[in-house]
Each structure stands twice: as C-alpha cells, then as structure tokens.
Amino acid sequence: MARILFDEVTKIYGDDTLAVDDFDLEIEDGEFLTLVGPSGSGKSTLLRMVAGLEDITEGSIHIGDTVVNNLPPRSRDIAMVFQSYALYPHLTVRENMAFGLKRSTDLSDPEINDRVEEAAAMMGIEPHLDQKPKHLSGGQRQRVATGRAIVRDPGVFLFDEPLSNLDAKLRKHMRTELQRIQNQLDTTTIYVTHDQEEAMTMSDRIAILNYGELQQVGSPRTVYNEPENVFVAQFIGSPSMNMFVSTLDTDANRFVGDIDVSIDPERASAIAQNATSDELLLGIRPEHVTVHLEAVEESVPASVDIIEPLGSNDLLYFDLEDGTGVEDVIADDVSIGEDEEKDEEEYKVFIQPDSVPIEYEDSGELVYLTFDTEHMHVFDPRTGENIDVETATRTTVDAQTETAGDDD
Amino acid sequence: MATQSRDTTELFGVELSNSTVDRLKAVGFHTFLWGSIFVVLLPVLWMVAVSLNPLSFLNVIEDPMRWVNGVSLDAYERAIYQTDFLIWFKNSAIVTLAATALTIVVCTFGAYSIGRLRFRGRKAVATFLLMTQMFPLILVAVPLFLIFRDLGLVNTLYGLTIAYIAFILPFSIWMLRGFYENLPESLEEAAMVDGSTRVGAVIRVIVPLSAPAIATTAIFAWIFAWNEFVMALILISDSSKTTLPPGLSTWVGRYSLQWDLLMAGAIGATLPLIIILFFLQKYIITGLAEGAVKT
Amino acid sequence: MSNATPTEGGSIIEEYRYLLSKESVWGWLFLLPTLVALAVVSVFPIIRGILLSFYEYNALRPDVWLGLGNYATIFGLPEFWNVLKNTFVWSFASVVMMAALGLGFALLLDREFKGRSIATTLLLLPWTIPFIAVALNWNLLFDFNLGMFNGILNLLGFERIDWLSRGRYALFSVTLAYVWRNFPFFMITFLAAMKGIPQDLYEAARVDGSTRLDLFRHITLPFLQPIGIVTTLLMSLWTLNHFTLIYVMTSGGPGNASMVLPVYIYRQAFRQNDFGLAAAIAVVMLIIMMGYGLVYLRLYQEEVGGK
C-alpha cells in the first residue's frame, strides 16, 4: 500500500519536446486516480515515469516514502496493465501470471501456484490457466493481464488504457469489474484513459491533463459541475458542453449575443470584475437547456438540425440565427477540448422523445430555448478560466465567500 | 464437375466452357512450371548420375541401360577411404557449428541493441554495419593473414572461426534487427515491471519469441560459413586443417578425370545444406519476410 | 504539496542498478562483443591493408615506403583495366539475370496450387549447394568431351564449344553457373515480399476493372521495389566479392579473360608475393564498392524515402 507523490515532475523528450510540465499531485493510499486527457496530453508519459519505463527529466516521484526516480521498474513494487495487455505469447496463462512472482518473490512453487489460482478465481479465468494467450478472446486476455497484476499484490496498480481494445459492451462490464477488484484490494491505483466516461464512472478523483499541464483535479462530480476552465468543461461530459458567445451588459445584468440571458446583479458584477474581455463564453450542458415549441419569456429562437433518438431521451442539434464562432473570440493559446469529429460547433440539447415533431428537422421551423442560468458557466476567452463565481470550483477563496447556491 | 457452367469463352476459335478453359490453363501452368523446375535441377541430377557412373552425356542419352548397369558407389568409397574428404568435412562442421552458435549469441544482443534500444550512436552503428558489407572480403583477408600470422592464429580452426564470426555478424544483426523492431515494446516492459532485469527480459521474453527469426539467421550464418572459401584458402595451409571448399578445389587438378569422385565429393559437401533446406525451409522465407530484407 | 522528507533514492547498489536500467548503457554493452569482433577482424585489417598499399611488403626485411608507387604501378598495367572491366561485366550481368529469373519464378510460385511448397523447395535447392560443389558440377557440365552442354549441342548438330578455356566464353560460362546458384535468393526475397501484399488491394483493383498486367504494374511491382532495391544492393556487393567459382573453374583464365578483382588480388598477394601491390588493388576495390554502395543508397533514399 502506498501513497504517490508527484513533485514538480517535468518530462522533456529529446531536446525540446515538452511532454509533462511541472506536474504536482498527491495520490492517497488506496485511492483510485484517473489521468485523463486527449492523446499527447502526457498522461501515459506520467504513468510510465511512475513505472520506471521513462526517465524523469526534472522533479521527483515518490512511492510510499521513497523517491523512485533512480529505481529500476522491478524495485518499485508496482504492477502494470498495458493497453496491448503485453501477455507473453510463448507462456501459458498460468506461467504469465506466475512470471512476476517468480522474479520478485522467494515464494515456493506451490505457494506461487496457490496465489495464481486465487487471482485467476477472482478474475474468472481458471478454465483458461493452461492455455496460451493466442487462444483467448479479447476480454479473456484483458482479465489475464489484470490477473497478472493483482497476483503480485503490489503497492501500486498502473493501468494504461487497459480497456480501449475491447468492444463497447465488454468495456462497460470490465469497468465495473475493475472497480470491484480495486475496492476489494484497496490498492493505490493510477488509471490512464482518454475516455472521459471511463474516468467519470471509475475514479475517486480525476486529473485532467492537456499538453502536459494539469488542468484540474477533483472528484468526478466536481470536475463535471465545476470545471475550472474551458478545456475541462468541454472534455468532461458527453455530449460536450454548449459554448455560446455573449457580451455582459453590466447595466442590465444581462448577457447579450448568441444567447440573451439575465443573471442576478451580484453575480454579474463579480463576473465583470474577473473578466478581461467584453465577449465571454457561456457554457451550458445539453441537460440544462429547455426546448419550447412556442416563444416564452427570455427564450432564444433556434432552428432544428437533427434529432437523434438515444432511447430514454433524444438529442436535438440546433443552430442559432447568427451564432458567433467560439474560435473567433478565444485566444490562440487557450485550448478548448475539441470534439473528435472537429466539424463546426454543434449545439445540443436533451429533449423528451417526440416532444419536438420530427418534421422540424432541417425545415427552418423555429424552436425556443431557455437556459438554466444556475448551471451556466462563464469563461474568459482570453484565459480560458472559469470566471463565474457561481459555478467555479469552491477551492478558490472568492468562490467560497461569494457562493450563492450549491449545484449538487 | 457436377454443375455445368453455361459461360463459354472462345479460345483459338473454339468455343469452350469456362471450366475447360480453367483446366487447360492449369495444365499449361503446371507443364511450364515443372518443366522449368526440371531444367533448373538438371545439373543436380547430372551430378548424382555421374557420381554413380561416370559416363558422358551423349553415352547416357544414346544408351541409358549402359548407365544403369554400371551404377556403383565406388566413387563414394574412394572419397571416404582414399582422400582427406572426411577430415575436411569434420573441419568444416566444427568451424561452421562454432561460428554459427557464437554468431547467434552475439548478434541476438547486438540486434536487440540496434533494433530496440534508444540511445545516441545507435544510428551510426547501424550505418557502420551496413558499410562493412561494402568492404571487399579480399582486402580484409590479405592483411588478416599477416595479423593472424603474427598472432599464431594462422593454420588453426580458431582463427578461421573468429574470422567467420566477424563476417557473419553484420548481416545477421541486420536481419534480426528488422524482426525485433516488429515485436511490441510493452512485452519487455511488462517483464521489467514484473521483476526482470533488462538481460532477463531479453532472455526470457525476447529470445523465445524471436526463435523463428533466430533460426533464419542461423541458417544464413551456416550457409555462409559452410561456403566460405577465400579465408580458408588464405588462413589455412595444411590439408589436415582445411575445410571442404579449399580442400575439394585441390581435387580439380589432381583427379581431373575422375568425375565420379569429384561429383561424390560435391554431393558430400552439399548434403548438410540440403538437409537443412528440407527441414527449415519455412523459416527461410518467413524469416526473410519479417526481418532480413526490411530496410 | 506534502513536506514530508522522503528517504533519498535507495542505496548505492540501487543507483548502480538504475544505471543498468538506462537504455544507452545497455545499448553499448550489448553491442560490445560485435564491435570488438568487427574491430579485430574487419576494421583493423582494413587499416593495415590501406597502410600496406603504400609499401613494398617484404617478409624478411622491413617494408619499403613507396608512397603512391603501388597505385602508379597498377594504373599502368593494361591487365588491371581488363580485370576491372571483367569485374563490372560479371557483376552487372549476374545481378540482372538473377533478378529477372528470381522475379519470374517468384511470380510463378505466388499463387495457390497443389505442390506449391515442394516446387518452392526444389527451386530453392541450387542456392543451398555450396559454391565449391557448383564449381565441380559445372566444370563437368562444361567439359569439352563429356559435358552436358556439348552433348546437347552435338545432338542439335552444332559444333562443340570449349566453354571454359576459350577467351570468348570463359566469363560467360562462369556467370551462368553463378546465376544458376544464386537466382533463388532473389526468388525467395521477392516471394517473401509478395506474401506481405494485402490481398484486398488486388481485390479492390480487380473490382475497379484492372487487368492482370495492371495488377502487376501498379500493385506487385511497387510492393517489391523496396525489397528489390535492398536485395540488389546486397547481391551486387556479394557478387563483386565472389571468388570461389572463378578461382576453381577458370582461375581467371585463359590468360586473364575471366579474371576478376578478388582472384587477381589473391594472385598478386600469394602467387607473386607482392602484398603491397595486392593491398593497393584491394583499396581501389574498396573505393569502388563503397562508392557504389553509398551512391546506390543515396539514390534509394531519394526514390523511396527509406530510412
């Protein structure tokens, strides 16, 4: 069992590629921490530095009370599950699982065998113990890889995108299973994934990375409800948060622009104080927008693009009459977590199935939207920071003193 | 064929069903292929024929029974009992086995280093290995003779073995490297996280996985060493110390009219390689596909 | 962050172990035996050889410095230019014929049919015959009285040919034997490359209406190109180096009609005992081979953009 501490860790590849920049984080004993971010964000590099598979350029990593910078992987009391599983193809499942125990412990063969069988039982792979990996399905291989890690009973588990090679259904199943095992063993775990949903469902805390910099750390609920910047807001949550460009009119306590909404004076003045630009980004999640078929007070007209049935509810894509592109206002060095498809901005809202007639699709027929301002985030396009005291993270002093209401 | 195809094709002005055309094509293909193979193998067949009964080509064509009636293993007996053939064969076997085995050990690690590890200078070494292929063997052999003479290594199988290893190494490393590059890196990382040292990871994980590629490399090493002529000619002077190629070459003048003996010697020198070919053929092709000729 | 003072990074032994986990340390450690072997048996002799080329070598007395004397001598020898010409003709003709035959047979074998494996093995067979055996075997085939070639010529009503001891034919005859022995190497490398061509490419092209020739030109050939280029380079270098067949079958004769550089150098060193002159010729050969290899690689990199 071990606590892990990253102390100003920096990784530079070659001469100039900065992969991780001055990273600080403490992971509690027994905690399940997920490193999440797009590819190239440095999350895998961090994990590999903990494993000892990459040199640490600057700073130090502590496991327990030991600085492990200069320890080879085998002396770090860790076990790792690789994305490719890295099962030894020439060894049976049993030999694969026993491999580490033989190298790192003095256990006798029967003892090793007992532990292997115990771990195999936990992972439900006893029938396959004497098979070679090539005869196993993807899910079984994943279980063997995980079993090979837990059999070692290490101080730290490292998972490097362990589920990304599985199909969607199996991935969801394994997610719960890994969580169950981690709860049962209570071993400190670092889990790397690019899948924010995986991060949300499994972790005690999530650390969101982008371009080698830590964006935010917190519980799944915190990072979802109180994103500290545009990147976190866009990256966490699927479908991603809608971003509107509007200007704050402090006299009228209203936002005017892509969407017009009014907010209470206290909040408006606080935002105005923090803002460095006139045009601001308003972030509202699809579940915090309401669709009306008739115009209502404070509503914004929009045309319906597509309605996607998702089952329990539908996802409606809409366009505004004349929307300003987020790209036009945001500073070049501020990263917004773009959608994978990277097509033009899409606005989305959850609706009840059939609450908007299907004929509205692409017809120019207007719907009217209202926005739940309590769950609205306001970002400064120059810095990307969340400047809205209402929903900004409570760890900042301002937010704590001026918070008007709780979100969750 | 039970199902009659209704499609037809015109071939040389004759209407033929497609299945007939396919069959004709197959017959043509097989005739051509096996005919070519026969022509390619004719020298080998002739070598065997003459070793059993040394008649001229015309004699055999005119009266094959004369050849059949005169078949004997006499030439093989003479090669074994009246010449140094067995000694040369033994010397060749010793040098080839030793050079192959040592090359494999050395090149397994060398190729791992160039194919898998990231370090400064790796590219330079890889280029250097390629450059050694551009050295004229004879430019090395002549001074090597002088150097080995000073070291007392001339006329010994040790000296010859050392020379062979150095010559086989660059190409062997080049071949194996291509294969190693294709193995997933996470395998030895997993082994190291699981408590192995770097050497342990190579021996326990990389070597077992690359057994086919190592077999291919060994075959090439074996073929090189078994074939090598100049080095042996230059570095060895005693008939009792020499290997098959220079040894057999002395027969050309000495037994110039005993074609059966010459062919028996040639076949004897060929046998070990033919055996390897038949057992390990698949390694030659797959090994080449996966490593050797990658750039 | 936490201010707890951690115990500093393990013992000296751990530090030492860590050093051993560095890839650069392992990289050089693993290469050490190779580099030592090559230094002793390749680099050192070559340096010695280059030095030797500036001296008149003498086994009993100290060597005499000649400067570029040996080079002046060889460039003045008409037979040297002849040998050089032979070497080029021999190498170029061999490689072209081997590549053509190898490609032809690889195409024949690159399909599904009964007996494919045995056909491949049989065609590979010449390549497993040691050169010394090839030399003896083809000496017989080319024999004036008993040989197969003259036998066939006779049957067809032609004059017998003195294959190996007539100036016009000697080099050609040896080339033929060499091509026969070595074309399978091209064949298997091409076959190996063909195995790597994704079948769906052919299928896609056929759906798009390509003819057999189109498939060959636009799919097979481009895929064979990288391997073909590397194999051709290696084979040219090996052919330039080749010694056995010419030494055993013709000794470079008659006269110097089939003499190539390696045999010529050997003779200068061990028959004429002129190590200095032999070394000088070998250095010229080194320059030719390096020049050829490097230009070839450069062209290759421009062509394919290889590493």
Structural summary, described in words:
By secondary structure, chain A is α+β, with helices and mostly antiparallel strands. Chain A contains eleven helices and 20 strands. Chain A has two domains: 222 residues, Rossmann fold (3-Layer(aba) Sandwich), CATH 3.40.50; 171 residues, Beta Barrel (OB fold (Dihydrolipoamide Acetyltransferase, E2P)). Chain A is 26% helix and 28% strand. The longest helix of chain A has 18 residues. Chain A is elongated, with a radius of gyration of 24 Å. Chain B folds into two domains: 65 residues, no CATH class; 210 residues, MetI-like fold (Orthogonal Bundle), CATH 1.10.3720. In chain B, β1 and β2 form a beta hairpin. In chain B, α8 packs parallel to α15. Chain B is flat, with a radius of gyration of 26 Å. Chain C has two domains: 41 residues, no CATH class; 233 residues, MetI-like (MetI-like fold). Chain C is built from 13 helices and two strands, in the order ααββααααααααααα. The two termini of chain C are 46 Å apart. The N terminus of chain C is likely disordered. The chains are: A alpha+beta (408), B mainly alpha (295), C mainly alpha (307). Chains in contact: A-B, A-C, B-C.
- What's the shape of chain A? elongated
Per the CATH scheme, the topology name of the largest domain in chain A is Rossmann fold
Residue share in helix of chain A = 25-40%
Biggest sheet layout of chain B: 2 strands, antiparallel
Strand content of chain B: under 5%
Q: CATH superfamily of the largest domain in chain A, please?
A: P-loop containing nucleotide triphosphate hydrolases
End-to-end separation of chain B: 48 Å
Quote the average pLDDT of chain B.
85
Instruction: Report the top-level CATH class of the largest domain in chain B.
Output: Mainly Alpha
Counting DSSP H or I runs of 4 or more residues, the number of helices of chain A is 11
Q: What percentage of residues of chain B falls in helices of 4 or more residues? A: over 70%
Q: Major sheet of chain A: order of its strands? A: 6-7-8-3-9-10
Low-confidence runs of at least 5 consecutive residues of chain A: 339-343, 392-408
CATH architecture heading of the largest domain in chain A: 3-Layer(aba) Sandwich
Distance between the termini of chain A: 32 Å
Radius of gyration of chain B (CA) equals: 26 Å
Total helical elements of chain B: 15
State which percent range the strand residues of chain A make up. 25-35%
Extended strand count of chain B:
2
Number of domains of chain B: 2
Neighbour order of strands in the largest sheet of chain B: 1-2
